[in-house]
Design brief:
The protein has 254 residues and is α+β, with helices and mostly antiparallel strands. The protein folds into 2 domains: 164 residues, Orthogonal Bundle (YacF-like), CATH 1.10.3900; 77 residues, YacF-like. It has 9 helices and 8 strands. The longest helix is centred in the N-terminal third of the chain and has 20 residues. The chain is globular and about 55 Å long.
Length: 254
Amino acid sequence: MIFYEQPLNERIRTFLRLDFLFSQAKNSLDNTSVWDTRATIASIIDIQNIFNRIDMKLEVLKELERHSASLTRLENNPNINKNRLNSILDQIDSFVDQLHAVDGQIGHKLRENEFINSIKQRISTPGGTCDFDLPAYHFWLQQPVDIRIQNLRKWINEFEIVNSAIQLLLLLTRESAPPRKSVAESGFFQSSLDTNLPYQIIRVGVPDSSPYYAEISAGKHRFTIRFVKPSAANGERPVQAGSDVDFELTCCVI
């Protein structure tokens, strides 16, 4: 099953982007080539840029506390698995305590790292991090792989508490509602949203064998899904499906 997601608010949008960047960084982190190291550095700088724009410590704390309040209201529900609920609440409390214990902004040490800052200044220029532009970076890239990985781990670990908390928050969000089987007639599906409910993500699942991908657009009151046949290979305009498409729909609300 391939899943397509559409965030319904700015906080969840940021969490999804950070989750993607952390996954991307960790995928290349332990690989030995210089190009993998460069890819990891690029991901770390993208993560840092988000943290520089947004107080992620505050944003994550707000979302953890919101989830805690929502889940606490379920404690007297006889249909709830009390052991799992208590385990999740304990995890949330632990993250809240760890975030409160952080002195200052998360990632502030990396912001003062002149080596990272020199790369950051050049990375937005096409080819701007090549050898003659950043000789110090070139020198570091030639160091033994264990030294490079040790440095990378130190830098990315500055954000690890937020990464772990976001993983839990996204897991809870994605599991907050069961998927339902739906049909997009002639490749098109539309539905309304109850504005009184805190919807977070629209999630669409299609079989791996499907010839179509999902384009999702959403506002406060409704969302639409269009199933499209890709045409990247020949460069032609993508075409909406002409037949009905079966898919799984999850409107995540918590």
